[in-house]
């Protein structure tokens, strides 16, 4: 089968190509680029993402197209509409409200969006942990990302954070110890459509979702006024360029869940470690592509990765693509882990 990849020369697109070439060498890849064409044995085609006819021409003959082009609010709807006209299944690493507004697909067509690291697999993990609970009282999600942000990724992050245009957000943070991330880190609470959807799905009584940084740079950045979200995205890119100098990439998730199992209190803490946000996003998107092509996706409406019904099978493909270097679940709280790390227990 032919798999088309839009934005193939970018960081996430490159990881998708690498993963599919290794894990599914029998599949043909059509790699759509705007610049930076490569010679790697795959089919490379120049595609103008601003021209819907060009997108449709690129999709012709594909069983599935994966979109990594962004920012999502600018391009996702164009790609989705082209896929609907062509009857091609679509995976979009980005997130856009256009998918939630679409209630019908062509026969046999599938669409998965928000199919990366954040949003994406970060919403999937609490569902996996929840399988061992009867009731969930609290959910604590910590996301630590260290990677050079592209302007596109920064725009998507600012949009997902639901910041008010031009206004200081008043984000505050204090130094904390978060096991497996750091002794003195800053947590910045955030919410987006995916975190709200997961809280509702799991009937969580209380939840907290945080971005974790090892400096207070977010507080300084978001406490200032700005002209619009584009300006904020540019500032965010500059911040990451400065903070990343001479440092290695990583993506870490630390998640704590408390509730009941068989009428007894239960607490677990999960730790996931990935090479970087773009590597995890690329491998997760590749995993979803393999699951879709193997007939594991039943939904006939656009659906978030985090909300897919066949979660056990999807996770099998995520494991096959080695999206994470480490995934451990511990039968105790983060507070107990902190005490253990400090030698108190």
TrEMBL record:
Residues forming the Saccharopine dehydrogenase NADP binding domain are 3-103
Which organism was this protein described from? Pseudoramibacter alactolyticus ATCC 23263
Q: Which InterPro entries match?
A: NAD(P)-bd_dom_sf, Sacchrp_dh_NADP-bd
Which Pfam families does the record cross-reference, listed alphabetically?
Sacchrp_dh_NADP
Return the Gene3D superfamilies for the record.
NAD(P)-binding Rossmann-like Domain
Please report the name of this protein according to its UniProt entry: Putative saccharopine dehydrogenase
Q: Which PANTHER family match?
A: CARBOXYNORSPERMIDINE SYNTHASE
């Amino acid at each position: 089968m032919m798999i088309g990849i839009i934005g193939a020369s970018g960081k996430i697109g490159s990881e998708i190509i690498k993963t599919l070439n290794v894990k599914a060498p029998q599949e043909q890849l059509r790699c759509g680029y705007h610049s930076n064409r490569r010679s790697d044995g795959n089919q490379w085609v120049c595609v103008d993402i601003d021209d819907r006819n060009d997108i449709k021409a690129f999709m012709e003959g594909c069983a599935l197209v994966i979109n990594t082009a962004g920012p999502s609010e600018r391009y996702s709807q164009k790609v989705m509409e082209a896929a609907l006209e062509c009857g091609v299944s679509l995976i979009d690493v980005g997130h856009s409200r256009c998918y939630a507004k679409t209630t019908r697909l062509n026969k046999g067509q599938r669409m998965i969006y928000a199919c990366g690291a954040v949003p994406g697999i970060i919403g999937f993990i609490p569902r996996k942990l929840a399988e061992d609970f009867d009731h969930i009282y609290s959910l604590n999600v910590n996301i630590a990302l260290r990677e050079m942000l592209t302007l596109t990724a920064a725009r998507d992050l600012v949009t997902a954070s639901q910041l008010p245009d031009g206004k200081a957000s008043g984000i505050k943070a204090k130094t904390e110890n978060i096991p497996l991330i750091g002794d003195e880190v800053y947590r910045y609470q955030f919410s987006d459509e995916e975190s709200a959807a997961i809280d509702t799905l799991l009937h969580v009584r209380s939840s907290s979702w945080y971005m974790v940084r090892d400096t207070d740079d977010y507080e300084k950045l978001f406490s200032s006024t700005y002209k619009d979200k584009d300006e904020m995205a540019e500032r965010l890119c500059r911040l990451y360029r400065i903070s990343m100098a001479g440092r290695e990439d990583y993506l870490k998730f630390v998640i704590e869940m408390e509730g009941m199992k068989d009428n007894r209190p239960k607490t677990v803490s999960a730790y996931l470690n990935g090479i970087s946000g773009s590597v995890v996003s690329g491998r997760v998107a590749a995993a979803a592509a393999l699951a879709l092509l193997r007939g594991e996706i039943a939904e006939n409406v656009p659906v978030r990765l985090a909300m897919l019904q066949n979660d056990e099978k999807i996770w099998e493909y995520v494991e096959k693509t080695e999206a994470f270097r480490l995934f451990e679940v511990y039968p105790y709280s983060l507070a107990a882990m902190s005490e253990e790390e400090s030698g108190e227990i």
